[in-house]
Every structure is written in structure tokens, then in C-alpha cells.
Amino acid sequence: MNFLALFSKKFIWVWMTFSACFLLVASCSSDNEEDLFPAPMVLEDISYANDVTPILSNNCYGCHSSATAVNGGGHILEGYTELQSYVDGGTLLSVIKHEDGVSAMPPFGMLSEIQISTIEIWIEEGALDN
Ligand code: HEC
Hints:
The protein has 7 helices and no strands. By secondary structure, the chain is mostly helical. The relative contact order is 0.11.
């Protein structure tokens, strides 16, 4: 084995050891209990009133309540009946998933994965007024 090959082999080991240490330190640097032990995701029996409405209220009603719809192109999402017209045909789901060809909602940022899944499962379970 020539010198260069030996050198680069050593270099790779040093680099790998360094990266491993860095990853170890980075992965242990969180002392937030929720990060270390995330609550198990239980996404079933989603309720319109208890699960879906709070997400829409916090993220969408600023532009889509009956009082604020002027900010949201006149689209009202507040209220079960109003929301239904966006559930049917899949508009609600495609805008929150930022799919191509629709306006991404909310316009700034995106709902979290768990919020999107909550709405998706609620729709899959029949979008009940529960
Ligand atoms: C800052 C204001 C604002 C917020 C917050 C907002 N929207 Fe909108 N939304 C708009 C505007 C403006 C339009 C109409 C223009 C357009 O389609 O881009 C719209 C349109 C829509 C439409 C109709 C799209 C269509 O093509 O018919 C839906 C559904 C919608 N928003 C859902 C949501 C949801 C769900 C949220 C929350 C996760 C949300 N929006 C948050 C401003 C907002």
C-alpha cells in the first residue's frame, strides 16, 4: 500500500470518528422531555369539535371565519356546513397539503404533519359532525 492510500484511509477514519462524535453530541443535546419521549401518535376517532375545529380556528379563521372571510377570498370554513363544501371534492385536503394547482393554505407556512393527518383521518372517517 502506498503512502497516499494509507493517508486517505486514515483520513477517512478520522473523519468518520469526528462525524460520529458530532452526531452523538447533537443527538444528546436535547433536554426537552417531549423531544426525547414523544407522545405516541394516536390518530383515531377524530372529533370535528375537539380536534379539527381547534386546528382551523388557530390557523385559518383569521381569514376564513364568517367575520374575516373578506381576508380569505370570501371562503368561509367556520361551521360544519360551510366546511363541508370544501371537504367534498377534496379542496380542503389539497390546499393544506400544498398540492400542485391549488392555493397552498395557510398562505404562510404549513400545518404540522400531525395536524394534516388529523384532518385527513377525520375526512377518511366520514367527516362527521362529532
Ligand atoms: C392570511 C389569510 C389566510 C389564511 C390564514 C388562510 N387562508 Fe385560505 N385563503 C386565503 C385567500 C386570500 C384565499 C382566496 C385566494 C386563493 O385561492 O388563493 C383562500 C382560499 C382558501 C380556500 C379555497 C381554495 C379554492 O381553490 O377554492 C380554502 C379551502 C382555504 N383557503 C383553506 C384554508 C385553510 C384550511 C387554512 C388554514 C389551514 C387557510 N385557508 C388559511 C387566505 C388565507
